[in-house]
Amino acid sequence: MDWITTVDHKKIAILYLWAGGLFFGIGGLEAILIRIQLIKPMNTFLDAQTFNELITMHGTTMIFLGVMPVIFALMNAVIPLQIGARDVAFPFLNALGFWTFLFGGVLLNLSWIMGGAPDAGWTSYTPLSTIEYSGTHGVDFYTIGLQIAGLGTLIGGINFLATIITMRAPGMSFMRMPMFVWASFITSAIILFAFPAITVGLVLLTFDRILGANFFDTSAGGNSVLWQHIFWIFGHPEVYILILPAFGIISEVIPTFARKRLFGYSSMVFATILIAFLGFMVWAHHMFTTGLGPVANALFSVSTMLIAVPTGIKIFNWLFTMWGGQVRFTSPNLFAVGFIPTFTMGGVTGVMLASAPADFQFHDTYFVVAHFHYVIVGGLVLGLFAGLHYWWPKMFGRMLSETLGKWTFWTFIIGFHLTFFVQHFLGLMGMQRRVFTYLPNQQFDLLNLISTVGAGLMGVGMLIFLTNIFLTSRKPADAPDDPWEDGRTLEWAIPSPPPEYNFKQTPLVRGLDAFWKEKTSGHKTMTPAEPVGPIHMPSATILPFLMSVGIFIAGLGFMFSRDDFGNAFMGFMFNHYLVTAIGLVITFGSMLLRSLYDDHGWHIEPEELEGR
Amino acid sequence: MMKTWQAGKRLLPMTAALGLILAGCGREDLSVLRPQGPAAESSFDLMKLSITIMIVVLLIVFSIAAYVLVRFRRKPDQREIPEQVEGSFKLEVLWTVIPLILVVVLAVPTVKAVFAAGNDHSNDKNAIKVKVTGHQYWWEFQYTDYGVTTAQDLVIPAGKDIAFELSTKDVLHSFWVPSLSGKMDTNPDGTTNRFSFSAPNEGVYRGKCAELCGPSHGFMEFKVKSVSEAEFEKWVKSMKSPAVLPEDPALAETFKSQCLTCHAVGDMPDLSSAPNLTGIGSRESVAGILLNDDTGVDGEPVLENLKTWLHDTPGVKPGNKMPDPKKDMGLSDEEIDGIAEFLAGYTLD
């Protein structure tokens, strides 16, 4: 009950982590099944339809429900601490964001047991995703599930923007913010502009499918290529929504374990902003073979290549942060150090793909599959591993086992390169992506086998990580405040895990790497910016949960509104939109309740603070 | 200036070596790395250039990383705090400018090649015009100037520019012959695409559908047969010769009433709801994936393949639109075998 009603950012972080972890596990299993099917030519382990459902759900799950929530978990856990705040700007909204994400994700995955998962690819290109060519409810689960989950992401993004703009501790100017906060800030801004685009697209597709509209139907005056534009004008920025937080994590971990401040801080900030800006300018590089013509192709080629410049700045700044430092190979730092060359490899293939005439060959082949897995798995997932190992003691008060952490790193990264490096060559040798099997004697066999073995090894790495979590959770929570000893930012100045109010007294920030600055000037703790006084706390509430349940019910009701149930009562309820109405009444009723009932929260009194 | 030239000189043999290594990858009739025509050649040149640049970048990053990680490892007795360096304006400008130069080096030939690839031959009198239509899960090729329609095997005269007009009857597909050219999507009417390529050498090349189009997406393959000009003319002529029907009148009736409602043969009107069957006995494959090979290395003889296909159409190509001859059309095993034998014998001279 405590977990359902919580509005504490640290608990919501943990909720995001478990829910994200669960979906990540589902997406991982889907990946393993895909790789087993492709282990040899003409394999019959899976049938074609199931395979297409698996690739669709693997992509959708991993992007929207697997890695995004884990990013949000870290952002929730760390941002308020790093800026010296007591919570996020809108704790109620924070809870609402989590629950809508969770119910959206649950709705999407219900498709496995409710008559057909989406099967048109995670990009759901029309006309394949229209009711004519994808007749099950699969794509409806996709459009409605993602709209609900996307709501949560948008709410979260806005919340972080407000938090970072308004709630920084005294003295923390923008140019004194930790890089992770900067990255999260820019990420949230991208979310603010990109997610409405996909939401509009999903609404239009829902209307086409459920209400018989013709936005994407060429024969009725629509345009099927329109979907690709809408999808990618969200889809490309989405890539940066994913990778910028990883950049932020790496920029925290490397300075800590090199015992040096981040090299070129201001150019890092500048590069992050530039990447976000360019990220919105390049969506059509996913569409070089759609037939946009040479002018568009040339413009999008060149603008895409430009992204290499700010990204290169970041890579070299990280390397030179370690230059002259004292590098310690703890497990978080192993992941961070492994990230640099791996991500660079994904980056350079990105520049290769940007060259449109060469992309005519790369596009929709395993070369592309290899490229984006190098970026998303080799970049983002390694970054998340670094972040999780790094902040685990702060989040849970327990140190993860270093030995198991190193085992996780080595099995995962070796498995990763084994899986995806050879896929570059598969693509160049003529293997197109999203094929459920392939004919023998095309020289695809050996490389596919290697790739599948690698995927198995990555799975082993994940299992070791889970074991590590399990064993750690049975140990006493005795992590010190600054467990890595060289912590630089504010979160290491308070206990692990932090008390629910985070900072007894808001700290005074006197420079970049505030805590490090105090430590090197001989202080043990931060200088407070205020006297000890009563701390205002928001009340726990179940309303966010109820509002999400309402949207979930409404979504299901809308989706099945045209079905024939062969049952008078069910038919009556669904066909007259009564189920949808019930769901909406729950949601709007909860909103009304929230507006009418004034909850001022509660206070923790100074005596209580001292009594600890 | 001298130094950059020296670096360039060192890169040349590297590019050459790289080209050789890459050329060893894959089948000649399939691999992007073994281009067989000018269009694929131009993509390959850009690939070689970009791979060379990228490998240089990787080598620099990897060596700095390796050096840093070995040299600046924390030693057990290190207690003093390392100097906190704010950054270096010079260095940061350096690694902004060098990537910019590299981008320009790649961007210039890219833009050039983009416009070269955009020049289509649809108004070229010497080019062969082919209308490609994608269907779930087969390819239709219409030679508008010759009044010939065929499926699955695209026959072209060697060395001639082929001007393609691409569209689809259902969902998006992508037309791709890796060793001859990059791919191009087939969009629904209204967004028809054009492009062109040529195959200087005679031979058979493997083509694929590159855009997810349903369960049998992976099986939507086709072949490009590049033949001599004389042979091409001969092929066109025999494609236009009158339709052939089975000799047995009962079987001919079955074939007419059951198959020709969707398929067409010879000079019969083509409804294009199913592949044109003219001369199917001399094609490279049945249904695009059952390769016809009398030696049995890559596939079975054409008769065996036709029997496999007709006895189990949904099994061979899941989700395809052809009704099952036995279950849906009520044909007997003998009739199916009879039609398979007739089709296997329906060859072009």
Describe the structure.
The complex is a heterodimer of chains A (612) and B (349). A two-stranded antiparallel sheet of chain A has the order 1-2. In chain A, α4 runs parallel beside α17, α7 (224-258) runs parallel beside α10 and α11 runs antiparallel to α13. Chain A is globular. With 612 residues, chain A is mainly α. Chain A has 20 helices and two strands. The relative contact order of chain A is 0.10. Chain A is 66% helix and 1% strand. Chain B is α+β, with helices and mostly antiparallel strands and 349 residues long. Chain B folds into two domains: 28-65 and 88-228, Cupredoxins -  blue copper proteins (Immunoglobulin-like), CATH 2.60.40.420; 249-345, Immunoglobulin-like. The radius of gyration of chain B is 27 Å and the shape is elongated. Chain B starts with a helix and ends with a helix.
Our Rg estimate of chain B from Cα atoms comes to 27 Å
Number of strands of chain A: 2
Arrangement of strands in the largest sheet of chain B: 3-2-1-5-8
Helix vs. strand class of chain A:
mainly alpha
* Lateral arrangement of strands in the main beta sheet of chain A: 1-2
> Could you report the average pLDDT of chain B, rounded to the nearest whole number?
90
Largest sheet of chain B: 5 strands, mixed
Q: Sum up the overall morphology of chain B in one term.
A: elongated
Structural class of chain B: alpha+beta
Largest interface: A-B, 89 and 96 residues
CATH superfamily of the largest domain in chain B: Cupredoxins -  blue copper proteins
What is the H/E string of chain A?
HHHHHHHHHHHHHHHHEHHHEH
**And the CATH topology of the largest domain in chain B?**
Immunoglobulin-like
Summed up, the helix count of chain A is 20
The largest sheet of chain A is:
2 strands, antiparallel
Helical run tally of chain B:
8
InterPro entries (chain B): CcO_II, CcO_II-like_C, Copper_CuA, Cupredoxin, CuRO_CcO_Caa3_II, Cyt_c-like_dom, Cyt_c-like_dom_sf, Cyt_c_oxidase_su2
Cofactor (chain B): Cu cation
Subcellular location (chain B): Cell membrane; Membrane
GO molecular function, one term (chain B): oxidoreductase activity
